[in-house]
Write a structure and sequence with these properties.
The protein has 120 residues and is α+β, with helices and mostly antiparallel strands. 28% of the residues lie in helices and 19% in strands. It has three helices and four strands. It has a two-stranded parallel ribbon with strand order 1-2. Strands 3-4 form a two-stranded antiparallel sheet. It binds S-adenosylmethionine.
Length: 120
């Protein structure tokens, strides 16, 4: 699998570290199916930080679903995904993003094994 990874030299599987400065989808699309043991990400929370454009929740979830689908495609059947998100606030209502992202993972056949809630 990874041995046959014929892609850009900078993404070669023998590298111990690859830093991809760009859209994660461009990197994920180059990775073969069922190969990653661990995906860890802190994606945008859609709260209007300087690095993100705030979208309607449905549109944000569609974007996240596309990245999650690609991540799951690359994930080994024995692999894990850690998806760290916060709260989306809409018109005074708090929506914990993990609760709305959870169904995307379950539809793709993943099981939640652990839930960590940070409190300050
Ligand atoms: C919640 S922040 C995570 C910050 C990170 N944990 C850190 O300590 O710097 C989300 C980050 O995802 C980046 N980002 C947003 N869309 C992205 C994409 N399509 N591909 C790669 N990175 C993306 C943003 O620029 C931002 O730095």
């Amino acid at each position: 699998m990874l041995e046959n990874w014929k892609i850009d030299e900078k993404f070669r599987p023998s590298a111990s570290i690859v830093v991809h400065l760009g859209d994660c989808m461009d990197l994920l699309r180059t990775i073969p199916n069922d190969t990653l043991q661990l995906v860890v990400t802190s994606p945008p929370y859609n709260i209007g930080k300087e690095y993100e454009k705030r979208h309607k929740l449905e549109s944000y979830l569609e974007q996240q679903a596309a990245v999650i689908r690609e991540s799951v495609r690359c994930l080994s059947p024995t692999g894990s995904i850690c998806w760290q998100v916060g709260n989306y606030v809409d018109n005074g209502a708090i929506i914990p993003l993990d609760t709305v992202i959870y169904p995307i993972f379950t539809r793709l056949g993943l099981k939640m094994r652990k839930r960590i809630i940070w409190h300050f």
